[in-house]
Amino acid sequence: MNRPIKRVAIFCLALYAALFVNANYIQVVSASSYAAHSDNQRNLIYEFSDPRGQILVNNGTANVAIATSSATGQLYNYQRNYSNGPLYAQSTGYFSIDYGSSGIESYENGILEGNASSQALKRLENQLQGKPAGAGSVVLTLNPAAQQAAYNGLASVDGGKAQGAVVALDPKTGAILALVSAPSYDPNSLSTHDRSAASSAAVALSQNPAQPKLDRALDESYPPGSTFKIITSAAAMADGVNGSPVSETTLVNSPTQVLPLPGSTSTLSNDSGETCGNTTLKDAFTKSCNTVFGQLGLDLGGSQLQAEAQKWGFNQTGPRVPMPSAESVFPSGLTQAEAAQSAIGQYNVQMTPLQGAMMAAGVADGGVIMQPYLVKQQLDTDGSVLNTTQPTQLYNPITPDQAGQLKDMMVSVVTSGTGKSAQISGVQVAGKTGTAQRGPGQTALAWFVAFAPADNPQIAIAVLVQDDNPNGGDTYGGTLAAPIAKSVIEAVLNHK
């Protein structure tokens, strides 16, 4: 071989070697980055090539699908469809070509696509039989009747203009019976394969000042107002006041009308300027006396209140249901004035509606707070059960005796106090109202947390209503939130 031919041969071998190295680099080293590239349509085509599993709720007699897939006959073979889309939007989320996924669609994606490890044997079996891999389904814990009652209740406030949230739990298990945020949205508008229509819907949702996609039940926290007096009462029972034990029948001190706050020009007064005077803890709780609970805050101090709040879940990572929830916050390093304000759920105390329902559930279940969860079961492609959620304990903030006393106090709120609008004939309801003040020019927030029946609780609930209409009338927990809670409680008890 002469020298020129040899050089050409070496050059060609070098080119082949470079080509080999480059091909392997692309297929092995860079494969994941190419696969994830936004311009790569193969992943989208694959994701929509087969039907996803269903998202189901149980109506008491059978599982009913609220999210399904339908054939399109187009490039993306299957489109996601949501029956009663706005009713379940915060739970189901959406599954979209251009906007990804959210809610259960995202957090249970492995099951719904059929790629979860628990489905491995079924996938193998189907492959050997020449069948599609097959997707699994998810059964939610939601009670359709309670969900509808919560949705209708929020929609009835101020002609549907109010914002708010409802969370209802089974206090004995932690199963979420209702999860509603208002205003809601229709996930079908984002899951449509008409990409122009989906884009218009996405823009409209993002520009809507009411933020319909925001899950106010899980993702937002608010000042809890007087509902926090449950925890202040628990702190007094657990630690005593000024060296003396405290129970529901203990006489507690308070100024007759106004409580001056040490080191501050501010004062605390009762809602209508009424006089509470020296009364029992139960009576002060029933009337929701700010002066009494502000004085308890001074006597206990910020550190004691913070320690008690943390036992209930404040300042802890919010539970995953499986979607994550925001943290509820009780501030640290409080002055005396700030401790008094925090004791009535003001200053910088923040609580999610989920935490409010957990607080009520803790009293209902004898002092135990169960881990909240939204997924009841995972099913394989044939409907066989792959997994059933087992209830687990999350917190244990109070003793059964303290829970019993708090129950008595909450029953008194509904029978003869600020929560009378939650009364149900033949059912003893235990509850606590809250009216949380916000910044200048903002209307108050209306809260109601409750459980029922008081002696055998089947439901614990938190209702938050934010009505920004200055002409919307009185904004009180007892007038706006308690009637919604009543309708949801009735739905659950009638359903059972």
Q: Can you describe this structure?
A:
The chain is of the alpha+beta class. About 1% of the residues have low confidence. The chain has 18 helices and 19 strands. The chain starts with a helix and ends with a helix. It is elongated. The protein has a six-stranded mixed β-sheet with strand order 3-2-1-6-14-15. A five-stranded antiparallel β-sheet has the order 8-7-19-18-17, sandwiched between helices. Strands 4-5 form a two-stranded antiparallel sheet.
Report a brief summary of the structure:
This protein has 496 residues and is of the alpha+beta class. The protein is built from 18 helices and 19 strands. The protein has helices at 3-29, 31-36, 42-47, 85-92, 103-107, 109-113, 120-128, 144-155, 188-191, 195-207, 229-239, 281-287, 290-300, 302-311, 336-343, 353-364, 400-416, 477-495, and strands at residues 55-58, 63-71, 78-82, 95-96, 100-101, 137-140, 163-169, 176-182, 251-252, 258-260, 267-269, 279-280, 369-370, 375-379, 385-388, 393-395, 430-436, 445-452, 459-466.
Rg computed from alpha carbons, rounded to a whole number of angstroms? 28 Å
Shape verdict:
elongated
Biggest β-sheet: count, sense, barrel? 6 strands, mixed
Mean residue pLDDT:
90
N-end to C-end Cα span: 93 Å
